[in-house]
Design brief:
186 residues; mainly alpha; 8 helices; 78% helix; flat
Length: 186
């Protein structure tokens, strides 16, 4: 709908019709939350980069590289999990194909089952992500960051509950008393 007509309707009825720009805004918001950057959103939606920027600014979407990187990392993890799920399904299909091979009664069925096994094994192998040393290191870093956060939360909770620093002598006494008292009773 023409913008002038929309403005006129708004004056007369107090109602402004939703236009394609609102639909673009929804698409931009959804894709940005999934971790896509400005250029990728423009490419996927066919909306010019400048329009993506204008609409994003209007709806409060910011393209922070750190946020985009984190969302993209989560998306890649989801994709790897989906890929692993497909590989598991192929492994189940492989089991059925092996049963077909064992129960084949003629050469044609046997050849068909053997070819199926070969194709399924190749597909499952290519879809099963290899865990590289870099992946293992990144996973370990993530675990350590989470562990640190959990320890910090426990420390803060203890200090709020007892009003003393966790590394103080008073805290050691409190902890020793709790260990001596069965079920944490005071």
């Amino acid at each position: 709908m023409d913008d002038e007509v929309g403005k006129e309707l708004e004056k007369v009825s107090g109602f402004r019709p939703v236009g394609p720009r609102a639909e673009m805004g929804t698409a931009i918001l959804v894709l940005a939350e999934q971790g896509f950057g400005r250029n990728e959103i423009a490419r996927r939606t066919g909306i010019p980069n400048t329009t993506v920027t204008e609409i994003a600014r209007a709806i409060g979407v910011k393209f922070d590289r750190a946020q985009t990187k984190q969302a993209l990392k989560a998306r890649l993890t989801d994709l790897k999990l989906a890929q692993m799920g497909i590989a598991e399904g192929l492994s189940e299909d492989l089991t059925h194909a092996r049963i077909m091979l064992r129960t084949a009664t003629n050469r044609r069925d046997m050849a068909f089952a053997a070819k199926t096994i070969s194709d399924l094994a190749r597909a499952a192998s290519s879809l099963t992500p290899a865990l590289t040393e870099a992946d293992a290191l990144e996973e370990t870093k993530d675990w350590l960051v989470d562990f640190h956060s959990q320890l910090s939360a426990v420390r803060e909770e203890f200090e709020q509950q007892h009003g003393v620093a966790l590394d103080s002598d008073e805290a050691r006494q409190i902890i020793e008393q709790q260990e001596e008292t069965p079920n944490g009773e005071s």
